[in-house]
Write a structure and sequence with these properties.
The structure holds two protein chains of two kinds.
Chain A: E1 3-8, E2 18-25, E3 28-36, H1 43-47, H2 55-60, H3 67-82, H4 88-118, H5 132-156, E4 165-166, E5 169-170, H6 176-201, E6 212-217, E7 228-231, E8 236-237, H7 242-250, E9 266-267, H8 270-277, H9 283-288, H10 290-293, H11 303-324, E10 341-349, E11 352-360, E12 366-372, H12 374-395, H13 403-414, H14 418-424
Parallel strand pairs in A: 6-9
Antiparallel strand pairs in A: 1-2, 2-3, 4-5, 6-7, 7-8, 10-11, 11-12
Helix pairs in contact in A: 4-5, 4-11, 5-6, 6-11, 8-11, 12-13
Chain B: E1 7-13, H1 19-38, E2 39-44, E3 56-62, H2 68-80, E4 81-87, H3 89-92, H4 105-118, E5 135-137, H5 144-158
Parallel strand pairs in B: 1-2, 1-3, 3-4, 4-5
């Protein structure tokens, strides 16, 4: 019997730290453990006893790169608990916060984490400035990241742990000069986003992994904050049913090895969003990325990278519309008295659907809470996908020393976030 | 810096949300050309796969120390670096990563089995509880200007003729 035991202590070029172990016998993978190497920081436990106003910035600290998505989900959960309806301007500023996040976070993932694999380099900074294409990519990558960072900073105060968005509104409003500069920066990076789409459209790696897909999608548009939870099977859960959806379909499986939906694994993230709702993208994005969009819906996990590149273009086009067609004026924060209530917030974080739940007491103190992160939902998919990939590579006769590199590429395509996942992945096997 | 060796740099993350890592990659947007010339990114897992753990001129350490393996690792880093910079609130003051240090008895009862299962330290430590820290850059995330000032000072100290 030929046995293969692979152990990867540290997966590099992902958010946070992850380890992997695989056991195969005679070409069949019998065990895959994709898990954490980080210590828990107990964010949901620490919610207990905190005043509701402290919750968004508290939960932001779950993860640096996803922090602004955590803030948005927490604010929505808290506003639902307090029965606060945000103003139209607040909704626009929150959309812009998400677009800034999508641009900078996807760019980090695509240029710094994934692109070295395509160009046969160890690091993005190893790209050769004397090579025309690599020189262009280096400049494109940092220019796109900088534009997303600028937008997030202008609107939300910071691209990490934003200070301006709070329960009931914003503490600061963008100046006309800032908006003009954001417009100029976003317009200047649009050609770079088109080049990025082309790189990932032509990328050599493919791996079909048939799955179910789930995402929060609006009836019109593609904005990451509102809509119904939709599945690739055509089911949908409106906002009024978020809590029931969470409690009756997502959470009951949390005592199992990972999250499932109605007993089956599912994938969340850019690929899921485009598979379910590519027609909702901005008209200019659809026009400019027509050829790439024709590849969706797809079961190729590596097209999650292409989907992210297309979302960068969409967020540029959406942000340009929102910045050009609105003026921003100071507004007071909406405040309401505390009440005994449960609030659920759902957003599409860069890596997929993110749920926050708060249980509020009449004294304004949080009794308990719950957080379900995208990487937790993708965990089974990642493990099953790795298993299938390793079986395929062994069948093709790939030697064991080359397999880890291929596994890392697949893991990066899923774009896991271990800073989030460390606290919510199920680790019963440890 | 053609005639001088590049500055050997390490970036290590322990128990934290890695917000300062993200800030570093954002600061890089404006400084990558200089950094590419000046720094040998010797051990930076967010940037590369082939990381070398031999010796560093500067090691940036992010995050609090939550387990015995992290205690050993940060001691090893200290032994291999000329300067050790603690970045971000978790490294400098141990919070919020160490919020369990102040949990109530009821909260501790809920998490004790996980502390045992993961073999975590009874109390989460700040970096200076374990090793000597040369520079502290507090903030959640670290402050961008302070980081750039520290980097500038380190370059002038390590490569005075550059």
């Amino acid at each position: 019997m030929h046995k293969v035991d692979l152990s990867m202590e540290h997966i590099t070029k992902i958010e946070g730290d992850a380890a992997l172990s695989i056991h195969a016998e005679d070409g069949k993978v019998t065990e895959v453990k994709f898990g954490i190497t980080e210590y828990k920081r107990f964010f949901t436990e620490a919610m207990k006893g905190k005043p509701i106003a402290a919750i968004p910035s508290h939960l932001a600290r779950i993860c640096g790169t996803c922090s602004n998505a955590h803030i948005m989900a927490a604010i929505e959960a808290c506003e639902n608990a307090l029965d606060i309806q945000p103003t139209k301007q607040t909704e626009i500023l929150r959309s812009l916060t998400m677009h800034g996040l999508i641009v900078r976070d996807h760019a980090l993932h695509l240029y710094l984490f994934c692109m070295p694999d395509i160009f046969g380099k160890d690091a993005f900074l190893d790209f050769d400035e004397n090579d025309e294409v690599q020189h262009q990519m280096l400049h494109d990558g940092f220019d796109i990241k900088a534009a997303g960072n600028y937008l997030a900073t202008l609107i939300a105060g910071r691209s990490v742990h934003a200070m301006y968005p709070v329960i009931g509104g914003f503490l600061h409003f963008p100046s006309k000069e800032g908006v003009d500069e954001a417009i100029a920066k976003l317009e200047s990076i649009r050609p770079a986003a088109l080049r990025l789409i082309k790189v990932f459209q032509d990328a050599p790696d493919h791996f079909d992994w048939k799955s179910n897909y789930m995402a929060l999608i609006a009836d019109e548009g593609f904005g990451y904050l509102n809509g119904k939870i939709r599945t690739s099977k055509g089911e949908e859960y409106p906002e009024s049913e978020y809590r029931a959806h969470l409690e009756h379909t997502v959470v009951p499986y949390s005592t199992a090895s990972a999250y499932k939906y109605k007993g089956e694994s599912y994938m969340v993230g850019s690929l899921a969003r485009l598979n379910i709702a590519k027609d909702n993208l901005h008209p200019k994005t659809k026009e400019s990325a027509k050829e790439a969009l024709a590849l969706f819906p797809s079961t190729d996990v590596f097209l999650n990278n292409l989907a992210q590149a297309i979302e960068i273009l969409h967020s540029i086009d959406e942000s340009l519309d929102l910045l050009k067609n609105n003026t921003f004026v100071p507004e007071p924060i909406i405040k309401k008295p505390a009440r005994e209530a449960v609030g659920v917030g759902v957003v599409e974080a860069p890596r997929g659907t993110l749920y926050h739940k708060v249980v509020l007491g009449a004294d304004g103190i949080i009794r308990e809470g719950e957080v379900i992160v995208p990487t937790g939902q993708n965990q089974i998919n990642i493990e099953e996908g790795i298993g299938k990939l390793v079986e395929k590579l062994l069948a093709e006769g790939m030697t064991e020393d080359k397999i880890p590199m291929e596994i890392e590429k697949l893991i990066r395509a899923f774009d896991p976030c271990m800073s989030c996942g460390a606290h919510f992945l199920k680790v019963s096997w440890i | 810096m053609e005639n001088q060796e590049k500055i050997k740099l390490g970036w290590f993350s322990f128990s934290c949300c890695e917000d300062s890592t993200i800030m570093m990659t954002e600061i890089m947007n404006d400084h990558w050309q200089d950094w590419k010339r000046i720094f040998d990114f010797r051990h930076v897992k967010v940037l590369k796969s082939h990381n070398i753990m031999d010796e560093f001129d500067v090691a940036f350490v992010e995050g609090a120390i939550a387990g015995p393996d992290q205690e050993e690792k940060v001691k090893e880093i200290r032994s291999k670096t000329k300067y050790l910079v603690a970045v971000g609130a978790c490294a400098v003051v141990g919070l919020p990563a160490g919020q369990r240090n102040t949990f109530t008895e009821a909260q501790n009862a809920e998490i004790d089995f996980l502390i045992t299962r993961f073999g975590a330290l009874p109390k989460v430590l700040k970096v200076s509880d374990v090793v000597k820290v040369d520079v502290e850059l507090p903030g959640c995330p670290m402050n961008t200007e302070m980081f750039l000032k520290a980097v500038d000072t380190l370059i002038k100290t390590l490569r005075p003729n550059s």
